[in-house]
Design goal:
single chain; globular; Integrin_alpha_N; FG-GAP; hydrolase activity; hydrolase
Length: about 220
């Protein structure tokens, strides 16, 4: 059993952290053993209530190990946004080999991130798998204001609330579906109809140039 008071686990148990709220497994370092990412979206971090963190436990011959837990957050160097109250980084997780290099990558949703004055617009970070584990270098951090992403920033879109990875076009690279359940689609404004962006994998990782948007008819 793992928790935030387990040996070698970064951070400590606090009321309402919700350790394990989201989980994703993948071979992030390409050593043939699956690793585990654990979302703790209500973790108070760097002085910000509910900023959120993600723990990563490495697979070994004897099972999962918390030794060297890198503890990803929006305060980690090279991450494409900064930690703030109530961002809930780690609310959703998805693992897939988005660039086809044989190592799993990790998508992390922070659906209550405020973007350009829009409350709870949401953001999704992408961390690349390497021989030494997940890397924050080059995190593209997709929002609905990112070039090529369909939709527009609005309050309460909550992009990144749900994530799923799969090779939807069969090209050998995982693709990423990003849920934005608060997106307004129908006539009349603030209706929280919701939509899903699908960004496709490539040798450069997830790209938005073929973004598909799915929602219910109205």
């Amino acid at each position: 059993m793992f928790h935030q008071d387990s040996p070698n686990v970064a951070e400590t148990v606090q009321d309402g952290d919700h350790f394990g709220y989201a989980l994703a497994s993948g071979d992030f370092d390409g050593d043939g053993k699956a690793d585990l990412a654990i979302g703790v979206p209500h973790e108070d971090f760097a002085g910000h209530g509910g900023g959120g963190v993600v723990h990563v436990f490495r697979g070994t011959a004897s099972g999962l190990s918390a030794a060297g837990d890198p503890l990803l957050s929006q305060d980690t160097p090279n991450v494409g946004s900064s930690v703030a109250d109530g961002d809930h980084f780690g609310w959703a997780l998805a693992s897939g080999d988005f660039d086809g290099d044989g190592k799993a990558d990790l998508a992390v949703g922070a659906p209550h991130e405020d973007i350009d004055g829009h409350d709870d617009a949401g953001i999704t970070h992408l961390f690349r798998g390497t021989a030494t584990g997940l890397s924050t270098l080059g995190d593209p951090a997709y929002t609905q204001d990112s070039p090529g992403v369909e939709g527009s920033l609005e309050d309460d879109d909550r992009s990144g609330y749900a994530l799923a990875a799969g090779d939807f076009d069969g090209d050998g690279k995982a693709d990423l579906a990003i849920g934005a359940p608060g997106e307004d689609i129908s006539r009349g404004g603030d209706d929280n109809d919701g939509h899903v962006n699908v960004l496709y994998g490539s040798s450069a990782g997830v790209v938005a140039d073929r973004d598909q948007v799915w929602h219910q008819a109205w």
